[in-house]
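tool=predict chain=A
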Amino acid sequence: MNANDLLKPGAVVLGIATVGALGFAAGFIVARDPQVLRRVARALAGGAERVAGALAESREELADLWAEVREDARQNIEAQAFAAAPVVSATAGVEADLKDTEASIDPAPKRRSTRRRAATNSTRAKPH
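tool=predict ok
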């Protein structure tokens, strides 16, 4: 089927006639029973709601599956990293921690001699 076939004058007239006939039939049915329009709208809304619910459930199941797969992958990576890590003795770790702790402790601050303190106090300008 070619797109140019749809634009021929006969196809356009046929399309307009079809839409007009469907509109006339819908108007006739609604005029005979006004509740039909409400029932049709209610059925369409119910169908749309069921589809939305099914999509939400599918989305939730997919999210759960994705979370499970990510957790499995994370556990596999951690297990591989743990297996590949070098074995270190327990005492070596304690000795390294002890050296780090000793290096981080600062020695006691040095006290100034009383002579320096006296000299500093005498050179300061005294308020009058």
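The radius of gyration is 43 Å. DSSP finds five helices and no strands in the chain.
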